[in-house]
Amino acid sequence: MGGVGSNSILRDGKGFLLAYDQGFEHGPTDFNEENVDPNFILDIAKKSGVFTGIVFQEGIAEKYYGKDVQQETFNNQLPLVLKLNGKTGFHKGEEPLSLQLTSVDRAIELGSAGVGYTIYVGSEHEETMMKEFRGICDEAHKKGIVVVAWMYPRGRHVEGKENSRDVVAYASRLALELGADFAKLPYTGDSESFEWVVKSAGKTKVLMQGGTRKDDGLLLEEVTGSMKAGATGMAVGRNVWQSGEPVNVAKKIAEIIWS
Ligand code: FBP
Predict the structure, then answer these.
(1) What pTM does this model have?
(2) From 30's CA, which of 1, 37, 77, 239 has a CA 20 to 30 Å away?
(3) Is beta strand 182-185 parallel, antiparallel or unpaired with respect to 53-56?
(4) pLDDT tens-digit series, residues 53-90
């Protein structure tokens, strides 16, 4: 996989994923009356028409994306990336561990084009996640779907260095060596340093992480910097669906990705 298979969540070689697993990771505290409804998120994807995939945990995929819903609304135009692991936000400040909750087979049953898995790089539990991830990579590739690794530096060994060039490049290299097709990584603050992150990832394609809601100008600057550095695209959540103009922001990001 890696080459041809990656195209299932790419358009003209670029990717733009809409992430909506924050209700799981942070609780509904991230949401308001509108965006607490998964259909609101699907509507953003539909109205903007710019995303190459959507990220859900199993329960939401089952109830809002399932094959019937997908056919009615998107005619298979919005590939699903099913998040296989996750943890709650109740353990902030500890050495994070996120374990597999659902399977590659279930992802395929739900019509997924890919699976996602978070590895907390630098955490004292990183080995457990790496081992689980390896098995997932092998299985997903055998069964013909792509693997997106959320590579997030976390824990006391990397504290304060979560966005530093060398730590993020280490995370991107790890994604390559573990067999991920895509690595979702935090931005390092400037295009030059992110270029090293992208280089370190080799044939693994880099998607920049969104993060907490920031000023639109800064967000677009980061997208520009990461694309200039050779990133394949972005995976974004809060910066789109927490915006007062989500469709507009999504389109502006897409303009940069496909420019
Ligand atoms: P955002 O663009 O909203 O940051 O979404 C990306 C994401 O990776 C989600 O998939 C996930 O729920 C969240 O960020 C995790 O954020 P954190 O690790 O900072 O709690």
Answers:
(1) 0.95
(2) 77
(3) unpaired
(4) 999 999 999 999 876 666 665 656 899 999 999 999 99
